[in-house]
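Recap from last week: sequence in, structure out.
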Amino acid sequence: MQDIRIALPHLTITGIQFGQTDKPLVLALHGWLDNAATFTHLAPMLEDYCVVALDLPGHGMSSHRSPDAHYHQMDFVQDIHACVVEQGWSDVILLGHSMGGILGSIYAAVFPERVKCLISIEAFGPLTEHASTSTDQLRRSIESRLSMAHREAKHPEDFESAVRARALAGDMGREAARILVERNIEEREGQLSWRTDRRLRTISSLRLTEEQAEAILNGIACPMLLIHGEQGFEKVKANAERRQGWVKSLTRTTCPGGHHLHLEAPLDVAEQIIYFLNNQ
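Predicted structure tokens:
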């Protein structure tokens, strides 16, 4: 396991590499407000692969976007592609959790020639809203950004309180939260601060429509594995029931655990991933 840095023209992406580069590449994408450490337990179990887990911009140790920018979903897709191109990666096995699974599905559809397989944990395509809500979405997004700009940042009192807060917010156990917080907190002038860019918490400007989600999932040409947690998000299961016919080659499975099952109960998840990849 080693830290990596990828210098892009507009920012620097950090991450963790598990395994040797002469093995097939698994590019791992974390969920919203998480970081590359979310794959700390799962990645070593994929011993026949080189797992590169990225910190997406604004997360973990990666750069924040410039003060005049925001965190649009499609900009993350561009960041991922910039890393793939800069590193010269091809035949990528994409592994995404939650938001990372959403981004993986979009990337696989937009750049199918780069992606060999797609594995999504607790996510099945983009979150959507009806087109009629567009003006309300924009209004709430703008107001949330202006409101945050005028509020002082909140700092954790100590490390343990930060762990408790992350566990509560992420619906996960204390030890899983501790792994994420260790990579997402730093000390500045005697005070603990979150590394995560707080602008990530503002409301998205516009979500895709269900028709756009269908077009994206229809565009996934590679085999896809969807992993649910037995106690995972019901919305993911509902989306899968409604959308599963939109992906050309889809395998669905369920493993013990909640939304962060890859971090809290990784053995079953690893077994399902290995079985899926061995049969491609």
